[in-house]
Amino acid sequence: MDGIERAQSGRRAGRNMSRRSMSRSSWSMEDVFTGSRNSRVNEDEEALKWAAIEKLPTYDRLRTSIMQSFMENEHRQNKDNKVVDVTKMDFAERQKFIDKIFKVAEEDNQKFLEKFRNRIDKVGIRLPTVEVRLKNLTVQADCYIGSRALPTLLNVAQNIAESALGLLGIRWAKRAKLTILKDVSGIVKPARMALLLGPPSSGKTTLLLALAGKLDPSLETQGEITYNGYKLNEFVPQKTSAYISQNDVHIGEMTVKETLDFSARCQGVGTRYELLGELARREKQAGIFPEPEVDLFMKATAIKGAESSLITDYTLKILGLDICRDTIVGDQMQRGISGGQKKRVTTGEMIVGPTKTLFMDEISTGLDSSTTFQIVKCLQQIAHLTDATILMSLLQPAPETFDLFDDIFLLAEGRIVYQGPREHILEFFESCGFRCPERKGAADFLQEVTSRKDQEQYWSDRSRPYRYVSVEEFAARFKRFHVGMQLDNELSLPFDKSHGHRAALVFSRYSVPKLEVLRACFDREWLLIKKNSFVYIFKTVQIILIAFIASTVFIRTRMHTRNEADGAVYVGALLFSMIINLFNGFAELSMTIMRLPVFYKHRDLLFHPAWTFTLPNMILNIPMSILESIAWIGMTYYSIGFAPEASRFFKHLLLVFLIQQMASGIFRLTAGLCRSMIIANTGGALTLLVLFMLGGFILPRGEIPSWWVWGYWVSPLTYAFNAITVNEMLAPRWMDKLASDNRTSLGVAVLESFDVFPDKNWYWIGAAALLGFTVLFNVLYTVSLMYLSPLGKPQAIISEEAAQELEAGHEEPKTPRRLSKKGSKTTSLSAADGNNSREMAIRRMSSQATGNDSGRNESSLEAANGVAPKRGMVLPFAPLAMSFDEVNYYVDMPAEMKEQGVQDEKLQLLREVTGAFRPGVLTALMGVSGAGKTTLMDVLAGRKTGGYIDGDIRISGFPKKQETFARISGYCEQNDIHSPQVTVKESLIFSAYLRLPKEVSKEDKMIFVDEVMELVELHSLKDALVGLPGITGLSTEQRKRLTIAVELVANPSIIFMDEPTSGLDARAAAIVMRTVRNTVDTGRTVVCTIHQPSIDIFEAFDELLLMKRGGQVIYSGPLGRNSHKIIEYFEAIPGVPKIKDKYNPATWMLEVSSMAAEARLGMDFAEHYRSSSLYQRNKALVKELSAPPPGAEDLYFPTQYSQSLGGQFKSCIWKQWWTYWRSPDYNLVRFFFTLASALLVGTMFWKIGTRRESSTDLTMIIGAMYAAVLFVGINNCSTVQPVVAVERTVFYRERAAGMYSSLPYALAQVFCEIPYVFVQTSYYTLIVYAMVSFEWTVEKFFWFFFVSFFSFLYFTYYGMMTVSITPNHQVASIFAAAFYALFNLFSGFFIPRPKIPKWWVWYYWICPVAWTVYGLIISQYGDVEDLITVPGMLERPSIKWYIENHFGYEPGFMGPVAGVLVAFTVFFAFMFAFCIKVLNFQMR
Predict the structure, then answer these.
(1) What contacts 1214, CB < 8 A, 6 or more positions away?
(2) Where is this region: Disordered (predicted)?
(3) How many whole angstroms separate alpha carbon 547 and alpha carbon 557?
(4) How far is CA 997 from CA 162, 967, 988, 1199, 1303, in A?
(5) Bridge partners for 360 per DSSP
(6) Cα dist. 1449→97, 558, 1255, 1270, 1346 in Å?
(7) How many CB atoms lie within 10 A of CB 981?
């Protein structure tokens, strides 16, 4: 600070001189020693340039600055000042500027912000600040009681029925009110960093959401929140403050920089430009020249509408994302940046904007402690020097990170226990009788001291007996504590609005002009189209292929214009053309739904209004659509031989284009309304079915029942069909011939037989209607995005006991009820009290006996329990060691890096890694983010699917074989992948049954599962559904423990854990580490990668393998007591600073070995390690372990899996059965769709089965059967895809773990479908059969049922097969849609078999739908001798004859048809199993 005072005191005397010297000293000390003459010249030159800039008009002056760069020559540095226009700085210049100013992010950020602050203070500008207050805030939620919350088919059906009755005001479900926050008051002050701490599910997220004004409206809230004295409804909180969520939702195809640039463009520059203008005005008056770099930075970050701003480069730098700037973010199927980097992108996305009030929810998940420290440090500087208001919740803040905060909010059970300066918090707890022990982080202490389980160990006065202090008591004592009293005083005085700066709050919803936002959205849309070019190319190629098929089926040499029958074939061709282009829009559905989560996030943050998202989407699809239409018409029009006039050709082209646009519109609208893949597929299919049935070509207009006629007029296909047929049939070649009655012209006769208006104006009516529909659908789509919110509400559940206690009048149940919105956790009273005294004793003993002897836990645990605690781990296992020597790993060089001029073909991710893991020793794999920890684990565990590995890996001296290794190892992945619809206990039983040897009896397995649950402390959750991460079910920490338990029940000898503690708070991390430690003490070999260890966690490890960027080892060896071994190793290196007292060794070690430290010391730690005695010792150890001990045998198992195929199948079908039973969104939706289709078909074709007058009736019936089966089939096919895709990710993990082979899994999936499809077929056939009134004979009904059942089944299996041969269900849906078109064409409906050219007839015989239609027709009409009228035929033929001759159906062919239908079903199921086995789409 003295620099600032100096500058201020000497302001009048030598203003320019003193500031110059300051600026120079900050640039480079050498300047002082270089000749003063040289620098004087530079100074004068710079002053002249400033004077020139000052004379520019304001607009230009705010865009022009001076860029300094140094030219080095032998003796001295020359400063080169060039005047730049900040709007025209290119990427390289911006990069150079950022790299020069911020070499070491946190130190240089501090210097820079001080200069910035100094500049603003000089002219006396006060920055706008925001003070957020909350008074008596209470938040409550409604929740169900008991098992009703498990989403089985029955429960969901009941819930739906209840909510329907609820609309009428009838309620009978048991519900209870659950209080999430209770009477919370506090002040978040500007220019101070505030930390929000609390155990899991204490309401941290709810509090942050409430402060940011983003609470779910279904929650009841009381109390008030104000910003600078304004209530939330008096300004726009979403724009004034930014809430940074714990879930990372990003578009996977965009790079990190593109994501942040888009965000910066949407959020604009806020008041930065106004500030700059005022600053420039005052500086000009005072005659001050600013510091060049501060000036350049401020001007460059205040430009409005820049496509890529300097603020993005700055944010990337301080968040440490500059190394992955051009890497795609990635998603489940595309490998992108790491989890920790994704977290930082989520943070960066909000801080590139102008908002200075930040509510950050657990931003450190997946980051190592040094990165967290660096980011929090930068945010602290921003808070202190730019007066920002920051409240951040962190799970496991390390002590040094904790010390960066000024204020602490401590939350427990929804109450504020403490809120005020950090200095007084420990004093407050000491006044309550609790003390934080040495070598314990304050944050960890604070999270545990309020919990019933962990409180006792901190009781300070041992002379007095301990008693439990409840959260309410702490809260009451805080009100009497001096900090609490002061807070009350502050809150009792209202905020003085005159002090507030009007610019601090935002009063308009969108801070950037609409056109700018639209431009940003256009650019992003175009970018995504380029990145997704594969999809568009695929669609175009697909349409060209189908066009080729269509033009060879309806080839012009076979197409005549003689009579009505020829006319009908032409109409078939036109219809086919229309339907293909309609189906072509189906891909929009999944592509829109993929984009929705990101859209909803941006919409809620008010980045852009809905129409700026939909408009670019729609407009940029037009060129694609034109291309596809031209491709289609070019291929088909003349080769089919439609009317040859040029005008008709272009009119036809226009119609096809409009049909495509209309289809895109209707599918987008469906996606916007349905919002989830499964429901949307159903919604999409239903829409199509209605359009199809009422388009006037399956049911001619005159035949539509009176109650459906309105549908004919609102179906876009009606207009398309009328227009396209009128355009063709009114051509001269049809009009110049006479029809069979020798009166009307042939064209008109054909039109009349199809009930189309024979009027040429209908072409333009149709085209205009399609255009209108296109606009309407897109407008409705935009409206749906504006007003609908994403689906999926996590339901809070309370068990019966807890609810009864609530009702009995205890406000709080005595059980430690931890209720989160995410799921339910309840413990019965007895268990809670029984466990905690025992556990307390264990904790006390183990906290006294720290030290690294592995015997430390056994004695204490046994003493405490009175039983041998390792009972659970008694199943025998062989302890195994693993050694690896000179392991290297390469991947192919990514395309992005090649574009930047990297020459190498391969990128090396691991370099010559050597080490060993031994039984009973807990090894930590550490390193900064991106050092290759997970890569090394994947390589050693054999989980990599790509890349090149070389080096020697041995298990107890024998070379590692993956098949046997999978049997004796467990791997806990970082992202916890589990089947969402099973409960915790079921997950464990499944794993145990499949992975424990056959010899272990069923009872033992169940006991073992229970004991593992005890060990991992999951007992209270055994009936909770796992759910999808971040959406439903278990919280992060519970999923972590489940992941570990699933591996433990396999009783492995070697366990790998990838970041078992990331995403957990201190208490949960302690529970997980306790689990891990217990596991090691049974004599297993355990290796963990770990990011952010607290001192306790770090010192639970015995050995450490430390890596640096580039995959090189820089330390491998023991930690020693209190980590003394590793500290000695690093402190022995000359130039490494000594560790501070009480400092976390893990953090210190990452700091002293960082890239920056290497650069400072001018050495390579990897080289230093390779030349140390430690390395020689490790080499010797590896050598010793790589020779098998005498008499040892290599691992051998008689079978690859522990269970027989039958056993595997039984377990798989058991799990699949539960999954299906609990997937209501899949099964109920499917059942609902089938019911709707059956009723639609029934009401449209009411009693048509009895009418047998003309061939039109027959065509209608065939159309009806064809359409109904096809649509229900397609719906089965598309709804099954996402279900299989979700289960497949779990399957990859379980198969890699050696649980089962692919066949039993696939068979289980196949068999599970059968009962559901059976139920579906039953009610479908009954409804349709009765309403259409076919003949009621047993045989005919049975055949109808049989054909429908197998048709639905083969469609379902076909859907499963498409997923198994494609990487994700988006591609699967496009692939499946390609074949729907062919199924359509060859079903025998558009063109009867005798009319199909002989070179395509083979496809008719292998088209499953054709066989379905075949079976339905001959089973119903194969024996009917009634006579019918046929246009163009003089004699009336019998139905049997007509079916045989016109459609080519042999009446006696029912047996073979049945056989073929069964064969198709089996074939698709077999293909599914085969592809699941052979293809692996997981990229690792």
Answers:
(1) 990
(2) 1-38, 805-839, 845-864
(3) 17
(4) 47, 10, 15, 11, 20
(5) 244, 392
(6) 79, 21, 15, 19, 18
(7) 27
Q: Hey, do 132-140+180-420+479-504 and 915-947+956-1185 end up sharing a CATH topology, with the first three levels equal?
A: yes
Torsion of CA 748, 752, 754, 760, to 10 degrees: 50
- 3-state SS class at 956: coil
Question: Residue 277 in contact with residue 394, Cβ under 8 Å?
Answer: no
| Partners of 1055 in the β-ladder | 970, 1086
The tens digit of pLDDT for each residue in 205-245 reads 889 999 998 888 888 889 999 999 899 888 988 888 889 88
Q: Reply yes or no on whether the pLDDT at 189 is more than 60.
A: yes
- Write out pLDDT tens, residues 1445-1454: 888 888 888 9
CATH of domain 915-947+956-1185: 3.40.50.300
Which residue carries 């893990």 as its tokens?
1146
Q: What's the mean pLDDT in 1420-1442? A: 84
552 near 576, Cβ under 8 Å? no
Question: Residue 1325: which region, alpha, beta or left (left: phi > 0; alpha: psi -120 to 50)?
Answer: alpha
Question: What SS3 class is residue 817?
Answer: coil
Query: With 90 as the cut, is the pLDDT of residue 308 above it?
Result: no
Please state, in angstroms and rounded to a whole number, the distance separating the CA atoms of residues 1036 and 471. 24
Q: Given CA atoms 1199, 1204, 1205, 1211 in this order, what sign does their dihedral have?
A: negative
Structure tokens of 1233?
A: 């769709």
Cα 878 to Cα 1051: distance, rounded to the nearest angstrom: 10
- 667/681 Cα distance (integer angstroms): 10
The dihedral formed by the CA atoms of 697, 699, 701 and 704, expressed in degrees to the nearest 10: -160
The two tokens of residue 247 are: 């879930």
Within a 13 Å sphere around the CA of 500, how many CA atoms are in the beta-carbon half? 18
Ordered alpha helix ranges (H), 788-855: 800-807, 829-848
Q: Where are the domains of the chain?
A: 2-122, 132-140+180-420+479-504, 518-652+660-787, 915-947+956-1185, 1206-1478
CATH topology of domain 132-140+180-420+479-504: Rossmann fold (3.40.50)
Extract the tokens encoding 59: 């607009």
Q: DSSP secondary structure string, 1431-1462?
A: TT-SS--BHHHHIIIII---TT-HHHHHHHHH
Dihedral Cα 446, 449, 452, 453, nearest 10 deg: 90
String of DSSP letters for 24-57: HHHH-THHHHS-HHHHHHHHHHHHHHHHHHHTS-
Contact between 982 and 1215 (Cβ < 8 Å): yes
**Residue type at 469?**
V
